[in-house]
Amino acid sequence: MIPASLHERNLRALLAPIADLLAEREVSEVMINGPAQIYAERHGRLLLTEHRFADGDALMAALRGVAQYAGRTLGPDDPILEARLPDGSRVEAVIPPAAPDGPIVSIRRFARTAFTLAQLVARGSVHRDGADQLLALVAQRKNVLVAGGTGSGKTSLLQALCAAIPRDQRIVVIEDSRELQLPHPQVVQLEAQPADARGRGRISVRQLFCATLRLRPDRIVVGELRGPEALELIQAMTSGHGGCLSTLHATTPHDALARLETLASMSDVGLPLAALRAQIGSAIDAVVQTHRREDGSRGVHEIALLAHSRRGYALRSVYREQDEPAAEESAAARGSGSEAA
What we know:
This protein is α/β, with parallel strands linked by helices. The protein has 11 helices and 15 strands. It has 2 domains: 4-108, 2-Layer Sandwich (Beta-Lactamase); 117-339, P-loop containing nucleotide triphosphate hydrolases (Rossmann fold, 3-Layer(aba) Sandwich).
């Protein structure tokens, strides 16, 4: 077996053309569109850099090194790579034939230390009254769903919420790809695994969730809901596991609930829609909407509390960015979709 240190040394050499970007604290993402077009995201803004790989072969060699380090396969038959670098950065790469113009790569970097809500207030990501609302939700063991688009700050907010969990409680974290860094004394982190080249060894988020229920969690944190595991989380929330936290991609609180329905319906349980909506209404206490502002910064846009009625979900906004009136029914709840039968 090749020592991990040798793998890491080889990987550093292969990624030398972008080493400066990967070492820069202000860079949150590196995007590679072929060997000669490399962008970096700083403070929410994308800028073309002068960094280059020598040619396509050099870029492919680097990607093969990443795949080898992560124990993944990469080639014409497996043209999509999901992996992590030694520092925890997440790599997503697509190569020909799926990317006919050449290798496309995104390297998402994560903060070495987790933000707290107080730090998010100091950074202007949320106002003090919004942070107080979030602290109350965590203290009261409410089940919270963090929704937002790609790069809107969902993971940073989720980490800040986890940082507010009392230190005598046991947290079990489930992720498709490990991203969360939680400075908490009682954290158990589980990570899904893809199948090997022979189709063996796959461990899904759903399987991990079933195991989690037997690990005596005080809090269950699912990094991101992407599939049928959503139903397991909903049912855990309704069966006494309070204070659960998770994220999903959605642009409004109402869209988040609709997407949660869709993901849960992918399960083979086959719950009728009315029963599924009743469970979601009982399970989810609040939806926190994040967004990317026009200047590229990220922030909490809305906090909406959820109640369930016979007509559908009722969302009540208790915080909105830019000092908009709170404690009124959100636009999503007023729409006909939120009151669907």
